[in-house]
Amino acid sequence: MSNQFDVAPGNVEPLGSSVINNGVNFALYAPGASQAYVCLFDKSGHSEILKMAMNINEGGIWSIHISPLSAGALYGFRVEGEYNPKNGQLFNENKLLIDPYAKDLFGEFTWSERHYGQMPIGTKSTVNNAIDIPKSKVAPPTLYAHKKPNHRWSNTVIYECHVKGTTCRHPKIPKSLQGKFLGLSHPSFIEHLQSFGITAVELLPVHSFISEQFLTGKGLQNYWGYNTLNFFTPHKDYLVNDDINEFKQMVRELHAADIEVILDVVYNHTAEAGADGPILSLRGFDNLAYYRTVEGQPNVYINDTGCGNTINIDHPKTLQLVLDSLRYWVEVMGVDGFRFDLATILGRSKAGFSSAHTFLQAVAQDPVLNKVKLISEPWDIGPGGYQLGAFPPPWREWNDQYRDVIRRFWQSETGIIANVAKRLHGSFDIFEHSQRGPLNSINFITSHDGFTLADLVSYEEKHNEANGEQNRDGHSANHSFNCGVEGFTSDSKINALRLQQQKNFLLTLILSKGVPMIAAGSEMAHSQGGNNNAYCQNNRTSWLAWKDSQLNHSLTRFIDDALKIRRAHSAFKHSVFLDDIDERFTVKWFTEQGKTMTDAHWHEDTRQFLMYSLLDKQNNHALLMVFNASKKTVFCQIPPSPINAPWQMVLSSVNNASVSSNEDAMVEISAQSSWVFSANLEDVSHG
Fold first, then answer.
1. Average pLDDT over residues 614-627
2. What pLDDT shows up at residue 251?
3. Under a CB-based contact definition with an 8 Å cutoff, are residues 231 and 170 in contact?
4. If residue 340 lies in a helix (H) or strand (E), which one and from where to where?
5. Active site includes 82?
6. Quick one: which of 201, 117, 209 has its CA closest to 159?
7. Alpha-carbon span 354 to 348, nearest angstrom
8. Domains and CATH numbers, the chain
9. Residue 57, exposed/middle/buried by CB under 10 A (0-12, 13-18, 19+)?
10. What is the 8-class DSSP label of residue 3?
11. How far apart are CA 426 and CA 571, in angstroms?
12. Active-site residue (options: 48, 260, 286, 377)
């Protein structure tokens, strides 16, 4: 078979497979190997038709050029070398390895003992795993050539969603597209996003991923996707015709609708998890380069992720792999930004986390990456893992302190009013010290992880029994409340209060300074039955139902109303924190009597009421926000309008709310309700 091909030494870059000169160039990094091979497979992916020894080059790069060969060719790598787990060496030529730079994959992954290096334990496995692993597929990249929305952070509203769960039950999307990339870009779903002001979708992981073996053994799946198999390939289950260009088509169609695409990316660990995990890709090329191990114990992985194998971002080739992957998704696949899962890991070296870490510096100077949206989840379980506020510009950060304090406020907790005010105005105590502004805070009430918005006001305890861990998994401190009954009820008063509380959360979120993120399903009261860790629930627990009662839901209309107010008032677009000498904007805080709050008022342990005004002197606009988190009605004196126009009530969480426009009248602010008044702004409500 080998005499059918012409073979040349090949080029050392780019890494991976590249179509060039009537053939394909293969290059891989494996400096400790004694020999590397490229293995070609037939179109079925079952038969290995050629195994060719590669050539070693400077820097530990192996290369070969094979012709004639073209796009679509299936291949994998095998690597010979020392197999000594105690020294962190895991070379095993019996394991077919996925190319870390593969742009496409072919075939299914199947769990079996063939993937493991030692079988039985202590003995090097001689079993070939090729039958159970996807083959890398040659796929020449073409640059994304379509116009991108490039929304400013000040205009950004993020919708966090799961590719499958968001559309797999949508009645207006063809069955073949439901739960796929092309389902997200179907006109029916785009129309839904546009109907309530979304400017960006943030997709849960779309890099190729697999389910952990312990889940498949229980008949469950890794639904969320935080178990990456390859950093370049789109997850095949989200494709209709096994064509990776469908991802680019989705991006193009969302861009045409002025909606950006942000990817939730997992560069902190891979599917080769655990000290006794499988050998699938990185581990078989250079285990100690790609994963962090305890100093002096190369057989013990550092576990800052909870998954057993933390990526070693300090190594130059690992850093290059991550940066190359990020640039690929921007330049070739067309995405607009990234949300980095457990991002503290990407800024941590042996000395701990640093805002000047090599990775963060590399991104800051990269002419491609420093122009896209960068969002960190600024915590992990490693030493010094909580780093909210520590990431450098231009990073944005998920603000869990915002989430928790706003939840506690509407839970009717006392003694937190001053902290609530800080969160409403962009968390200056967290971000201002490093010359960052309110738009560095990604504000959210709920996300994929935890209770849905509807469950947040329907359950006081988690109900994760279906996950198979005796309800031990998931967070226990949720700051949730059930409004009187745990779970589903037909009580109309309780259901009305739950709807009102969801509106309270949404109104607070949208009219806070910062960038709002709304979890998919919040706009239609999606429930997971109290499961606050539905990572393994690839079923109707997680999938949006799209029932008749959820289409054009009152919460959808409410979000749209609130976002119209946000867009109409420039204070929410202001990139710096407001202070007492700001020339354009003025913030004033009031008591229930309409008087200016004093220090004593801020320290009242029983206070559950907030009222404040925002004045834009340049545009002659003013807003008055009134939040009553107590379980009692408050009779409130509305302060005078600061401009020559009366206050008008424009939005309230109370159904069919109305108040007198007479500024001398006492206004009845219902228990557990939120209100917005405007002066000199157009009426934005749906009535």
1. 95
2. 98
3. no
4. strand 337-340
5. no
6. 201
7. 6
8. 2-137 (2.60.40.10), 578-679 (2.60.40.1180)
9. middle
10. G
11. 11
12. 377
**Crossing angle of the two packed helices 417-424 and 400-410, in degrees rounded to 10:** 130
85-114: pLDDT as tens digits: 999 999 999 999 999 999 999 999 999 999
| Residue of 99, 253, 341, 455 marked active site | 341
377 has catalytic annotation: yes
Residue for token digits 């998994």? 473
Cα separation, 278 vs 281, whole angstroms:
9
Q: What is the residue-wise DSSP string for 490-554?
A: --HHHHHHHHHHHHHHHHHHHTSBSEEEEETTGGGT---TT-S-GGG--STTTS----TTTTT-H
Quote the CA–CA distance of 546 and 552 in Å, as a whole number: 10
Is the alpha carbon torsion for 274, 279, 280, 281 positive or negative?
A: positive
Asked if residue 103 lies in contact with residue 61, where contact means CB atoms within 8 angstroms, the answer is: no
Tokens 């990526």 found at: 311
CB 190 within 8 A of CB 254: yes
Six-digit token string for 541: 């627990």
230: nearest Cα among 343, 106, 377: 106
3-state helix, strand, coil in the chain (%, to 5): 25, 20, 50
pLDDT band for position 661 (50/70/90)? low
User: Tell me: the pLDDT tens digits for 534-577?
Assistant: 999 999 999 999 999 898 899 999 999 999 999 999 999 999 99
What one-letter code names the amino acid at 83?
Y
What global pTM score does this model have? 0.97
437 contacts 577 by C-beta, under 8 angstroms: yes
Query: Do the Cβ atoms of 611 and 669 come closer than 8 Å?
Result: no
**In sequence order, what are the residues at sequence separation of 6 or more whose Cβ sits closer than 8 angstroms to the Cβ of residue 147?**
255
